[in-house]
Design goal:
Length: 114
């Protein structure tokens, strides 16, 4: 009888933990997606502004936008222990990284195949 009760308690505990873990994972996924969308809208707004008002920037509006994003991330401490912000574009058959910010490091990784 004790063995059956212990088994039932164990099954309920494992099931509860599994449900809580899946819920937390789904919430974290939704938060990260929302953060990525927010960053994308912010970059798009900067790009629209630069396309309209940065005609005199020597390297063009795209470079003006990128310089502002790099500057902002150079002054930002980071996303905790595991967070990372990466900005890249496709160039032919390669992914070219424009910015990679992890912790306090702002670096530009080498291109990788698409």
């Amino acid at each position: 009888m004790i063995g059956i009760m212990a088994s039932v308690v164990l099954i309920v505990a494992v099931t509860s933990f599994n449900m809580l873990f899946r819920t937390a994972l789904a919430e974290e996924r939704a938060r990260l997606v929302e953060t990525a969308k927010s960053q994308a809208r912010l970059i798009e707004a900067i790009a629209r502004f630069d396309a309209k008002y940065s005609k005199d920037y020597s390297e063009g509006a795209r470079a003006a936008t990128l310089s502002q994003i790099v500057d902002a991330h150079a002054h930002y401490q980071g996303f905790g222990e595991t967070g990372e912000f990466t900005l890249s574009r496709r160039d032919g058959d390669d992914i070219v990284f424009l910015l990679s910010h992890r912790h306090s490091d702002v670096v530009t990784p080498k291109p990788v195949p698409f």
